[in-house]
């Protein structure tokens, strides 16, 4: 996943303004108790950050990829 795809998903799934606020301020346990923004700045893969953020927010797999069916990811193991 590219950074641009990460931000597209943030806007589509979480909403533009609320999503950016969440990325900037929500401390996520799955990201070593960092915000998603801090994890990205530290070099974490956008896909890893997206999954950790979705896990923290209890977003079901079926809703994580928005309406774009081309972005459907294979199941995580």
From TrEMBL:
Pfam families: DUF3046
InterPro entries per record: DUF3046 (IPR021408)
Superkingdom of origin: Bacteria
Protein name as annotated: Signal transduction histidine kinase
Protein source organism: Cellulomonas gilvus (strain ATCC 13127 / NRRL B-14078) (Cellvibrio gilvus)
